[in-house]
């Protein structure tokens, strides 16, 4: 069984991926430079901190869990 490692995604890449998978930016009062996204069909929700250069593998796993988008799909998109 191969491990699917996700890392080094930039905030703009994450936002583009989320929007391509049914997420829309929602206006929610947050401190700092976080952007909030929700999939209106699945009701899944996540926040992207725009202050990071890139996200670690652990942080990317959090995005995968919060969005309900499988790791292989994230991995496939990063290759393109």
Explain this structure.
By secondary structure, the chain is α+β, with helices and mostly antiparallel strands. 38% of the residues lie in helices and 19% in strands. It has helices at 11-20, 57-67, 71-79, and strands at residues 23-26, 34-39, 45-49. The chain has a three-stranded antiparallel beta sheet. The protein is globular and about 30 Å long. The model has no long low-confidence stretch (mean pLDDT 87).
List keywords for this structure.
alpha+beta, single chain, 3-stranded antiparallel β-sheet, Metal Transport, Frataxin, Chain A, 80 residues
In short:
With 80 residues, this protein is of the alpha+beta class. It has 3 helices and 3 strands; from the N terminus they run αβββαα. The chain has a 3-stranded antiparallel beta sheet.
What is the string of helix and strand elements? Answer: HEEEHH
CATH topology: Metal Transport, Frataxin, Chain A
Please describe the biggest sheet, giving its number of strands, its sense, and whether it closes into a barrel.
3 strands, antiparallel
If you average the pLDDT, what whole number results?
Answer: 87
The residue ranges in which pLDDT falls below 50 over 5 or more consecutive positions are: none
* Class from helix and strand fractions: alpha+beta
Instruction: Record the strand order, biggest sheet.
Output: 1-2-3
CATH superfamily: Hypothetical protein
Total beta strand runs = 3
Shape: globular
CATH hierarchy, class = Alpha Beta
Quaternary structure of the protein: single chain
Strand content: 15-25%
């Amino acid at each position: 069984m191969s491990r699917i490692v996700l890392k080094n995604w930039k905030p703009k890449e994450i936002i583009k991926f989320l929007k391509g998978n049914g997420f829309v930016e929602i206006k929610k009062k947050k401190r700092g430079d976080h952007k909030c996204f929700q999939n209106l069909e699945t009701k899944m929700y996540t926040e992207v901190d725009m202050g990071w250069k890139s996200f670690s593998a652990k942080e990317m796993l959090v995005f995968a869990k919060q969005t309900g988008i499988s790791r292989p799909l994230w991995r496939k998109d990063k290759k393109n």
